[in-house]
Each structure stands twice: as C-alpha cells, then as structure tokens.
Amino acid sequence: MSEITPDLVRHLAGLSRILVTDEEVERFTEQLSLIVDSVAKVNEALEGLDVPATSHPIPMANVYRDDVVEPSLTQAEALSGAPDSGDGRFRVAAILDEE
Amino acid sequence: MAKDELMNYEKALEMFEVVIGLEVHVELNTKTKMFCGCRNEFGDEPNTNVCPICIALPGALPAVNRTAVESSISIGLALDCEIASNGRFARKNYFYPDLAKNFQTSQYDEPIAFEGALTVELPSGSVHNIQIERAHMEEDAGKLTHIGGSTGRIQGAEYSLVDYNRAGVPLVEIVTKPVYGAGAEAPELAAAYVRSIREIVKGLGVSDAKMERGNVRCDANVSLRPHGQEKLGTRTETKNVNSLRSIERAVRYEIQRQAALLAKGTAIIQETRHWHEDKGATSAGRPKSDADDYRYFPEPDLVPVQPSKELIESLRAKLPEKPADRRKRVQAEWGFADLEFRDVVNADLLDQIEETVRAGAKPQAARKWWTGELARIANSQDKDVTELEISGAHVAELTQLVDAGKLNDRLAREVLTYVLGGEGSPSEIVSARGLEVVSDDGALIAAIDAALAKQPDVLDAIREGRMQAAGAVIGAVMQAMKGSADAGRVRELLIEKANA
C-alpha cells in the first residue's frame, strides 16, 4: 500500500495552490493511492532487471538551437494578456520576499 | 531590523570552527536566452526581450541554446570537473512571479559538470584547494520591483512590478563542497574564490562577469561547529551579496552573529538571510520550509544533453591559462614585488595592466598609473577603477609620452583627465590642447632670465654648490610656463649659466 495520507494531500494542494475541501482530501487520498500503487506494479515487474529510468520515450538527444536573435514580442503585446500592468511591467500582488 | 548580537571575531574563532559553502551564479553572455531567441541584454526597456517561451504562454516550447551548453562545458572543464556524458534538464517547481512558468528550468541529479577543484591563493600566501561539487545549467529569473509601503522597499509593499527581460537568461550555478580549514581567513577565502571564478569566466569569454550588474552573484553558506566536533552545524545561506567586499563582510558577520547565538545556547535557524550593504548586516529571509519542496522532475519538453568526447576535447583545447598559473607568470614577467602584486590583484587590475603592458608600457609605469592616479580618480568618483572609461592602450601611450620627455607628471595627469573626459588619445589631446612640455631652449632661457632678474643671488649659490637654491628658479619658470616646462632641462640650463 502507498503512503499517501490526507496530510500529504493537503501539503501537495498547498504547494500547487489548490484549495481543497475535506471531502476532496478524502477522495484524492484514495485516488492518488490507487495511482501510486499502480505505478508500483510496474516496479515489481522490473525487479531484478537492469532498466535505467526513462525521462523521454523517444531515443533522442542534443537538440539545439543556434545562438541567433529572433524577434521578441513588443512590450504592448507582452503585457496584453496580463490582468494588470504598469510602467511597462506586469503588476502582481505584493511580494513579501526579496528577489 | 533588530540589531544582532555579535561575538568578537577572534573569540568566535577560538570557540568554533568555520565551515563555508559557496554557490556562485554566472550569467552567460550569449546573444540570446537559454531556451528562446530573445536577446540577452542588460538594461533594455522592460519586457521588450520577451516571447511566448520566456513569459510562459500556453503551448510554447523551449529549445536549448547550443552556445550556452558549450560555455557551460567550458566552465566545467576550467574547474577541473568531469563532464556528464548524459545530462538532463529538470523542472524546479515553485510559485513566485519572478518566473512566469511556475517552475525554473534547471538541472537536478544530472548536472553538466561535477567533481572539480579550484586552487585559490590568499593575500597571506596560504593556498586552498576548493572542491567543486557541481556546475549546472539553469535560467535566470525576472526582475521584481516592489512598490509602495512607507517603511522601505519590501515591508508594506502594495504591489510588485515584474520585468521578464532577464527571465530565461542562461546561468551556470557552481556549487562548492563544504570548505574547511580556512579559520580566520574564511571571509577572505570566500571573496578570493569568487574573484577566481570571475577571472575564469572572463578569461573564457563566456560571461561579462560584472558583479555590479549581477553577472556573477554569490550565495554564501556559513555554519559553525565546536572544534573537534564532526557533525556540521546548522547553516544559513546569505543571498544578495554582489561585490567581493560584501562577500567578505557578510561571511564575517554571520560568523560573529552565529557564534553569539551558539554561545548562549540558542539554536541557529536554517534560513535564507539577506545582506544589507548599507547597514553592514544580514537579516532573516524566509525559513527553509514548504516553500523549498521543489518537486524536481525531468523536463519533458527538452531531450537529454549528451556532449560527445570530440566536443569536450575541442573545448578543453581552447581553455585559457588557470588564474593561479597566470598570476605566477605575469608577476614574474612584470617583476613586481609581492606587495605590489597583491595590490594589483586586490584592485582587480590584472587585465588592465596586462593590456597596458601589451600596448607598450613598462610594467612598473603601468602599475603606477593604474593603482595610483587612476585609482584615486575612480575613488573620488565613487567608482571602481575598472569602470573608468580608459583603455590600456591610452595609458600606455601616456607613459610613453612621459618617457619620451614630451609630458611631465603634472601634464600627464592633466592629459589623463581629458582622456577620461572622452577627448581622444593622449597624443591627440597633447596636440589639440598644446600641452607638450616646453624643452625649446630659447623659450626656457627667456623664462630663466626673467626669474633670475628677481633672484640674482641664485647663480652665486649654485657656483658655491648649494643646488637647492636652483629650486626657486625652477619653480618660478614652471609657474611662468604654466607647468609645461621640462624641469630637467631648466636645471641643466641653469647650471650651464652659473658655470659660464
């Protein structure tokens, strides 16, 4: 059995900035457990085999872009989708930490 | 900001062993950003070097900058690191508006370079071999400006403004292993290490390496433990340290602050601290907590980086000389005494003097101008001497004009101010302003005669061997000719006259 607890679900929700109700915590605990347990089954199947972890399913590497400048957006375009802006910049709620 | 209690520095070192760890971020000077083709440029209008990738519009796909990867490998090689045959990017997840994606693309368990070392020599002559744990590629974040509130820039801020021009600029983060054994010199060692990193990346040409622009930034970890204890003490990480002098001061401050707490039996809180240059103190930032649960995972949008042996070797072949080797070589070439050389290194003037010597100046003359008059001018303008708008070639030309007797020291200093004022090269200024030393005998003799008319006893005094009497006439001639007389020639003419 996985170790997904209601507290862990609340912690994850906090990190993800998602507001969850107690009922949802209960439901997600169950669902996440099921997912984690299912993934664990794959591990069982691999037991004893030397299979490296895969981050990309396609065997491809070294895809690069040359260091050549391409057109950027204009400031107006960049800010056009922002809920709020000022002084040519995105305006966000007060931040209580230094950059 | 509450005032911290500090323990006397010597006492702190008697009671505790200092362990430091340094994280240095180097901004690469590629033309474009790490994952998109936006310009990598300091000081442009806000949000004009941005695109769907670096402001994270839905569906935008990053692509890795080849030059940035090569520069990162070069940095790794210069630090004697192993280069990973397979490296991956990872997402470091956090919510903070300095990056619009809600994650920073970085590297986690497979950095491009690892297990290196850098030899750092201190002014005292002690040599330290700093172990490098890793150097990894990542992207810089945008710039936040906090607006409003009456008590300063952060507290009570009403809102923040974000400029994403810097978001996505390629960074290499270089992390040391814990550094032991520096004792009282730990602060100097921290600064000397960062200076060496700067020299390396400047020598490689991969970064502009200007600390005042944030091209090189240092986070300094400091912890204390009682002598003889094996377990490391709790550390703090001081950020926002953007000059070599600040690094030294911040480390020293943390040693004294932590020692005072530990001596009282108070535990150190593992936290981020901010350095305040004006107050000469650190203050608590956010404690390490939930916010640092970054949930790294492999970046699905970028495929692995697998540099070939050929690429690595071709980059290795292009490495410049190591800073420690270079220092030994140039000190010997220039024939500087240890103290003279230390001043040059501490003032970050190696490049300038090398350029000046290469342009034809004698090493001692180059040193004299850079650490003397130019340093004085920079200081009076509250600048770093390396920021002055003058090239080594101009300084070399000035020393040559002095050597050729065309300028005396006073005129040379005057010419220097015009060079700094952008009037051109020293020779151009000398001819444009007619500043050359007067060594034309006719003009000098006329001035000497005029001076002698007011001080007729001088010739007798010289005949009697009292040469100091000549000074008054030389001074009068200088004054009459507004400082442009060749003092040596005036003296010769005066002696000739006395013995005639």
Structural account:
The complex is a heterodimer of chains A (99) and B (500). Chain A is mostly helical and 99 residues long. Helix content of chain A is 40%, strand content 9%. Chain B is α+β, with helices and mostly antiparallel strands and 500 residues long. In chain B, strand 13 and strand 14 (281-287) form a beta hairpin. The model of chain B has no long low-confidence stretch (mean pLDDT 90). At the A-B interface, helix 1, strand 1, helix 3 and strand 3 of A face strand 2, helix 2, strand 8 and strand 9 of B. Strand 3 of chain A pairs antiparallel with strand 9 (159-163) of chain B.
Topology:
The complex is a heterodimer of chains A (99) and B (500).
Chain A: H1 6-15, H2 22-46, E1 64-65, H3 75-79, E2 85-86, E3 89-93
Antiparallel strand pairs in A: 2-3
Helix pairs in contact in A: 1-2
Chain B: H1 9-15, E1 16-27, E2 64-65, H2 66-78, E3 82-83, E4 90-93, E5 103-106, E6 113-121, E7 127-139, E8 143-147, E9 159-163, E10 170-176, H3 186-204, E11 216-226, E12 236-241, H4 244-263, E13 271-276, E14 281-287, E15 297-298, H5 309-317, H6 323-334, H7 338-346, H8 350-358, H9 363-380, H10 392-403, H11 409-420, H12 426-433, H13 441-454, H14 458-463, H15 470-480, H16 487-499
Parallel strand pairs in B: 12-13
Antiparallel strand pairs in B: 1-10, 1-11, 3-6, 4-5, 4-15, 6-7, 7-10, 8-9, 11-12, 13-14
Low-pLDDT stretches of chain A: none
N-to-C CA distance of chain A: 42 Å
* Average predicted confidence as pLDDT of chain B: 90
Number of strands of chain B: 15
How many helices of chain A does DSSP assign? 3
Question: Which CATH-level-2 architecture of the domain at 6-46 in chain A?
Answer: Orthogonal Bundle
Order of helices and strands of chain A: HHEHEE
**Main sheet: strand order of chain B:** 3-6-7-10-1-11-12-13-14
Q: Give the oligomeric state of the chains in this entry, treating copies of one chain as homo and distinct chains as hetero.
A: heterodimer
Helix content of chain B: 25-40%
Proportion of residues in β-strands of chain A: 5-15%
**Average pLDDT for all residues of chain A:** 89
Largest sheet of chain B: 9 strands, mixed
What overall geometry of chain B do the principal axes of the alpha carbons give? elongated
Rounded to an integer in angstroms, the radius of gyration calculated over CA atoms of chain B is: 29 Å
The biggest beta sheet of chain A is recorded as: 2 strands, antiparallel
CATH topology-level fold name of the domain at 6-46 in chain A: Histone, subunit A
Unreliable segments of chain B (pLDDT under 50, ≥5 consecutive)? none
